[in-house]
């Protein structure tokens, strides 16, 4: 208290000056219509600016919650789209009626990326969902824009994904316009470009054509984007194209992914193992 009194005494002239200045401004604004209007317009402008900044800060703070909500909504839409696509396949012959359980066999779990590699020859991704969330090794992983990879290891609360940017990862892919099937495989260089191999040179390949996951795949639903044809080349002594795809997924900015569960995968694998045992 004594320090406050001492401060007032030492700065009394300055404080009186400030008080008189404030009083003068108030009298001018109160008794002069022009300066009064100018004051209120200016004050309203800065109040509006302050409110806009405050609202922007609050919206920014909620971006994480908004992104999570959008990720869950995308998972629901992915499930609906896969179901509709399987129930009404565009390339099915007349009279084909898909089994309802087969059409709805895929479900999706939203996960957040907590670690992501893009600069190595064999890149992996870590997500915040594991065995406790029903995640199992072998499940496919996609993003809102395309294929991401496949679950390799799981702990109780985390999973490691073999990224599509991995030298040993391949995914069966179909060119939409030519309907030709090949395998997408990363050459280990640019994390935004992947090769499409085993596409016969005797079919027409169009630059800009989309490559999507094919029906010959038990891990990913058909029709998930892999990339778009950026470069096509063929040598006279080869029977296959050299095709470069621009990846649909931007791995440098990967935040949320969707782990794909095929509820009939176990049945498919069990049946295949019987054929192998009998060879």
Automatic annotation (TrEMBL):
| One GO term describing the cellular component | plasma membrane
Q: Which UniProt keywords apply?
A: Cell shape, Membrane, Transmembrane, Transmembrane helix
Q: Does the keyword Membrane apply?
A: yes
Entry superkingdom: Bacteria
Does the record carry DNA repair as a key word?
no
> Which parts of the sequence belong to the Rod shape-determining protein MreC beta-barrel core domain?
113-261
Q: Which InterPro entries match?
A: Cell/Rod_1 (IPR042177), Cell/Rod_MreC_2 (IPR042175), MreC (IPR007221), MreC_beta-barrel_core (IPR055342)
Could you tell me the Gene Ontology terms of the biological process aspect for this record? regulation of cell shape
Membrane-crossing segments per the record: 12-29
Alphabetized PANTHER family for the sequence: CELL SHAPE-DETERMINING PROTEIN MREC
Record family assignment? Belongs to the MreC family.
In Swiss-Prot or TrEMBL terms, this protein is called Cell shape-determining protein MreC
């Amino acid at each position: 208290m004594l320090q406050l009194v001492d401060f007032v005494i030492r700065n009394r002239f300055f404080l009186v000056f400030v008080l008189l200045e404030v009083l003068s401004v108030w009298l001018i604004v109160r008794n002069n219509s022009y300066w009064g209007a100018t004051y209120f317009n200016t004050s309203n402008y800065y109040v509006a600016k302050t409110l806009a900044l405050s609202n922007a800060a609050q919206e920014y703070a909620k971006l994480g919650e908004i992104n999570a909500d959008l990720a869950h909504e995308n998972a629901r839409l992915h499930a609906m789209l896969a179901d509709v696509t399987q129930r009404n396949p565009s390339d099915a012959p007349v009279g084909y009626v898909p089994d309802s359980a087969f059409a709805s066999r895929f479900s999706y779990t939203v996960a957040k990326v907590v670690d992501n590699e893009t600069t190595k020859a064999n890149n992996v991704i870590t997500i915040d969902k594991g065995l406790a969330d029903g995640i199992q090794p072998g499940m496919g992983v996609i993003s809102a824009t395309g294929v991401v990879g496949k679950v390799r290891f799981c702990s109780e609360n985390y999973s490691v994904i073999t990224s599509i940017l991995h030298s040993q990862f391949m995914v069966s892919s179909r060119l939409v316009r030519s309907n030709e099937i090949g395998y997408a495989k990363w050459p280990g260089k640019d994390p935004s470009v992947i090769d499409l191999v085993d596409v016969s040179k005797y079919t027409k390949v169009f630059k800009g054509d989309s490559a999507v996951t094919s029906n010959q795949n038990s891990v990913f639903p058909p029709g998930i984007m892999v990339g778009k044809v950026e470069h096509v080349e063929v040598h006279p002594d080869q029977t296959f194209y050299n095709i470069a795809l621009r990846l649909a997924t931007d791995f440098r900015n990967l935040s949320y992914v969707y782990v794909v569960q095929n509820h009939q995968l176990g049945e498919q694998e069990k049946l295949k193992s019987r054929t192998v045992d009998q060879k």
